[in-house]
Amino acid sequence: MLVQAYNPAALHYIIPSNTLIRRENTPATERITSRWLACTVPNRGRFFMQVSAVGDPGLAFTLYFPLLLSVHAGLGVRLMWTLLFCEWSNMILKW
Q: Which residues cross the membrane (predicted)?
């Protein structure tokens, strides 16, 4: 795949600065964002996949919570409440 050099002026031709991005325009916005990321940080797919795997909510419930709870009970409880709120809001907002 040929990656073009990042040109910030080119993005102004795609999305003018006074354009309100609506929900129906999100696929176009995603394409622009992914193209910008591919140009800005090329060959970093493996790194972002590892970051995504480390930040997986399932891993947080099964590994990070018990580990943090054994180190400091208050932080473990805060982490659990944070995880529950994030997962709940993610589910509600997607629905």
A: 63-86
